[in-house]
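Students often ask why we bother predicting the structure of a whole assembly rather than each chain alone. The short answer is interfaces. A chain on its own may look different once its partners are present, and contacts between molecules only exist in the joint model. In this exercise we take two input lines together and write out one structure for the complete complex. Read the inputs first and try to guess which parts will touch.
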Amino acid sequence: MVEALNKALHEAMELDDRVVLLGEDVAKTGGVFRVTAGLLDKFGDARVVDTPLAESGIVGTAIGMSIYGLLPIVEIQFDAFVYPAFDQIIVHAARYAWRTNAELPATMVIRIPFGGGVRAPELHSDSPEAFFAHAPGLKVVCPTTPSDARDMLLAAIAHPDPVIFMEPKRIYRAGRQEVPEDSAVTLGSSNGAGAELLSTARVARAGEDLAIITYGATVPLCVEAAGVLERQRDIQARVVDLRSIYPLDVKAITSSAAACGRALVVHEAPRTAGMGAEISSLIHERVMLDLEAPVGRVTGFDVPFPQFANEEDYLPSVERIVAGANKVLDF
Amino acid sequence: MSAAEVLRVMGDGKSLEDRAVPEGLGEKDLLELFRWLVILRTFDERAVALQRQGRIGTYPLYWGEEGTQAGALYACQEGDWVFPTYRQNSIGILRGVPVATILGWIRGYGGPAGFYNPRDYRVAPICVPIATHLPHAVGLAWAAKIRNDGTASLAWFGDGATSEGDFHEAMNFASVFKVATVFFCVNNQWAISTPVTRQMATSTIAERAAAYNMPGIRVDGFDPIACWKATRDALERGRAGEGPTLIEAYCYRLGAHGTADDPKLYRDDAETERWRPLEPVGRMFAFLSRLGVLDESTAEGYQQEAKRMVADGVKQLESIEQPGQDVLFDYVYSSGPPWTFQEGLAELESMSRQPEVEPPTPSPGPNTGDVEFPREP
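Now the answer. The structure tokens for the assembled complex follow.
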């Protein structure tokens, strides 16, 4: 995925000289995850900028650049480092369109590597996506495959409204996938392929017995859990990879839940007021009569993300997902 | 000049002596600058009256700070961007924003009845939260620098704003990347009820510039010509690639924080009255009269023009219908509404809407917006 994101950034900067990159350690080192590697050499230090260590300042100046007419891409080094920039994101980035009759949105992409499972220090493993989904004016997306990562990043850069681009860092280097050279998505492609990606879910595994709805680093775990369910009890679980956290693909969510009659939502973020609550509500409100059981949830707990010695206890595991699925199946 | 020294051009006709008008300001400029002051003063007084009549919402007045606004703006080039706060709420009208749009905003209207496209005027949206617009001003001038065009930016903010983190982050970014941003601090010494001595342990705001290796200039905030001069120099410096400047326009908040505030609760009226004679409109009228540049009938003409301009704006405001329910949803996303919006609007439309609340019948208040300024004895 890192390479796919890097490829997308190269393509975007090549195609459009309004694209600029801002962040901590993004230029010389190419980012702590190397997502921005090679860009400084190719595009120079006016467009690929190591900034002072100040997230509010980074997002705030990016808003100014956007007003001017550039297309800034901001890297927040780690999930929980976005909190100092929260004010700028919620109060300004999200509201600029609203405040200017939609004529001057704060067009920008804020990339946030997020989530646990990489044995990182405190505040390097948070899942803050629900905060942003709750803030009107933002788009919030999360790719899971390298191909989606490349296409969705290009689509996000071309999108007029600010996009919070959540990158599941645990699977940054998991699973290789050829990114097709002939992808329909290019920067500024007018065929709508990119816009579609920013608002629609994809089916990561087909099935008709149970809908498992998830996004990010838990997608491959849910696929694995589906394999276990198939072996243990001949259940075919459909795994829905949301891709878009806001807006939610309500059609994909409700039609999957209705088709299967049973649904489970899985995410890493804490449970209360997490995306699972919203998804569960949508299903119950719309297709309750198609359900055989209440929607289940397997999530992180309502606790600070633990010190990494205990992170496996916090993170939804295949075992916990299977157990959660069994509860819904046996209701 | 030392940080503590205050740049001043206009005297007060008594103990403060007049100094030479700085180069670059001809007679025409002086008159135009004065005309701008009159427009701002007229708007402000009229807005307070409109608030008292219940025709607009809570209004953050700026009576006495016109010089910090008009002086700074007059130093900008047409293409430069300015970033106002609520205290500079009407600065846009000097760049062509309709008076009715500003009043609509204060009346609580959203959509085109209360907001404008900042690109049309190079005037950023009025910033309500404190100091958060400062990084925007920096980013804009930084972008211009990347694009190699000479556009500069200027942001106003108050003394209270210098306590916010974004003030420091913006100052730091601006000086690290040497961008052409003017940080124009209106030190009116009060953030609602909190005096400036509670905002900082330094004796001036200007000296804070040293921490960012940029010049910190103190000017008399009641002196539009001094404000112009400091801003013009700062912009030249910025355009020459020498980076940002912090200007501290030292003055006093002669009015309340807003129409819902009562300064009697926290400060002594006598102190306010000591500062009042320095206010910029009467003082500039007297100064230009002493120079022989301005006479009563010309000033009268400006007054009439400003009154007409604001009155026309009020008339236009009254002719605008209150935005409908669509306005909640219409402009949140430039890319079009997400599906949740259609559901929200459908829910609202299924309700029987309450009839629009009638504004109270206007009654002539004690202040109908006529600008009065003291005449020379």
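Check your guess against this: The interface with chain A takes residues 81, 110-112, 115-119, 124-125, 129, 132-144, 146-147, 151, 153, 165-166, 169-170, 172-173, 176, 330-335, 338-340 of chain B (CB under 8 Å).
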